[in-house]
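Problem 12. The chain below contains 269 residues. Write out its predicted structure in token notation.
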Amino acid sequence: MNFRIKSFISILIISSVFISCEKEFDTVIDTQKPSYQVVSVSPKDSVLFNINDSSLVISIQFQQNSIVNSVLAEMIDPSGKNFLGESLQLFDNGKSENGDQTVNDKIFSNKIFMRSNSLNGNYNLKFYASDNSSSQKLVAWSTFKYRNGQSNVAPVISNALVDPDTLVVTDTVAILTSLVVNDQNGVNDIKEVFFIVYRPDGTTSGNKVFLFDDGNLLQNGDQTAGDGIYSRIISVNQNNVKGTYRFEFQAIDRGGLTSNIINYPVLIQ
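Solution.
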């Protein structure tokens, strides 16, 4: 038995109100404040990386009679991380370096720079504003799809492992599953790594059992984060139907391309 399994043999894994927005952007939050009203936000559609000008203007427009003291934006990338690492201050100062065209026109903007290796997929923008009498509040959000201009290549999986893959079950037994995943577009392009279990009679629930490359040894059996080896600990017990199961491994990238499939037999007696 693999040494990692010995450590886990005793572990049982148990496998605000929103208001409809204008059509020009996704959602406006009801601030319940008469001092400012959102008109539109940008970007809101698709953005393609431009090697000659990789700048992207983030902006939000308020009605002309709005009283706005400050505006911040956050941008969450497809992996759920803050793309900028912090909040981005938006300005209504008419300065080109901030991507703002006209001073005091109630359009607050700032400019960021995308990269050719930035993740493909949907980015979520959240806009926060304050007037002279309140703290920052979430007032709108938008989603846009980013394409980094690189050719998307499907991931490739290999070295599937189920340890042990043959076992006599009289009590709860922990099983380590792992898989090596490679992607020419980088490790951050991987969206999902999983397997689906098929019972001895060929039926399946179709549920995906996700594997992780997070370095969480105790919970997932993964030794090193970001090394391309995805792992997951599952458990079986005496109530499982006896016979040969099939574990179907696969990976999907953020562009929606699927990897090859690896089928792995597991005998429960």
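Discussion. The chain has two domains: 3-15+152-268, 31-147. Students who got a different answer should revisit the alignment rule from Section 12.3.
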